[in-house]
Amino acid sequence: MVTMIIIYCLLAVGLIASFVKSREKTLKACKMAGKAFVKTGPSLLTVLGIVGLTLGILTPEIIAKAVGAEAGVMATLIASVLGAITLIPSLVAFPLAGSLLRSGATVMTISAFVTSLVMVGIVTAPMEIKELGKKFTLLRNGLGFLAALLIAMVMGVVL
Amino acid sequence: MIRVIKKFAGPLVVLAIYIGLALVRADLAVQSSHVAWDYLKEMVLIIPPVFLLMGLIEAWIPKNKIQKWLGKGSGFKGLVISFVLGTLPTGPLYVAFPMAATLIHKGASRTNMVVFLGSWAALKVPQLMVEIKFLGIAFTLLRFVLTLVALVLMGLLMEKFLRKFPDEEWLQRTDGEVQQPATEEMTR
Predict the structure, then answer these.
(1) For the whole model, what pTM was predicted?
(2) Cα distance from B83 to chain A (closest Cα, Å)?
(3) B26-85 pLDDT per residue, tens
(4) Alpha-carbon span A89 to A117, nearest angstrom
(5) Which helix (H) or strand (E) holds A20?
């Protein structure tokens, strides 16, 4: 909600300032926005559909079952893969992670889940490829996954 | 006709998966559509203003400014700007991709954009508050520091790699829309 208000306020200020300064440039900006929207529309729809599928199938209960049952390297790997696939809003993800931690999952497993959840986005990859290219997307997500595993290991040792 | 189908290949494949799922497990398909519908409502509200803002940025902020703030020579300052831009409470990650693309075309460095996208996804202020509440301050702080270090390293590595092996296909595809960022880099 706050996010929406901030964005719309920014837009209002920007549009008014732009319109006062130059009508043509404002029109040009709107046209560019329209063009960008048409261009990204299909990949947005794809992402939307995949988000629905992953969240509809991989519900918090199923994740809890997959991650929370055991401790060890296997659980950590499963957790990081699940984190990489899913796109869970933080208001759901962190309470879930917290309850898993209390019910016996290790810090390493939970940090693997949380870190890969935020660093890797397989669900949003179609859109990232469209906007930033295949190589960029592969590198960013691949390195992000490795980083998530390393971070999890360090956190497991330190905490 | 074929062009339209090609353009909507992604959504059509996803639709086919939904139909297939509905035949096997109707309950899961319904559950998934509910989630998709919720996200659609959010997108409808958030996408138009973000694209308009990007249009304004494209129309008003000159290329050399972006280059100076976020370009290859921007150094530590560029990293800080990217980090701050990313951590502001500004919505889901799919909004950030077109933004990063616009900024790259305007001269921002890959390193800075990796940090921007990474902080957007992993280090957002409201998200950190929730994390502290449920996982504790020690966990959150340690993850924050480690993630930030990882993002900067990833960015530097990707910059190097993509300069050596540029994404030809992507450059070609986006060349028609912007004024040849690749050639400009070479002459500089």
Answers:
(1) 0.87
(2) 15
(3) 999 999 999 899 889 988 888 888 889 888 988 898 889 999 999 999 999 999 999 999
(4) 10
(5) helix A2-21
In contact, A148 and A115? CB cutoff 8 Å? yes
Does the distance separating the beta carbons of B90 and A7 come in below 8 Å? Answer: yes
Nearest beta carbon to residue B49 from set A7, A28, A46: A7
**Residue A121 DSSP one-character state:** -
ipTM comes to 0.88
Under an 8 A CB cutoff, do A45 and B143 touch?
A: no
Burial B73-96 (b: 16+ CB within 10 A, else e): ebeeebbebbbebbbeebbbbbbb
HEC sequence for A1-18: CHHHHHHHHHHHHHHHHH
Chain B residues with CB under 8 Å of A136 CB are 110, 158, 162, 167, 170
For A35-63, give the DSSP string: HHHHHHHHHHHHHHHHHHHHHHHS-HHHH
- In this complex, the residue of B43, B58, B91 whose CB is nearest that of residue A48 is B43
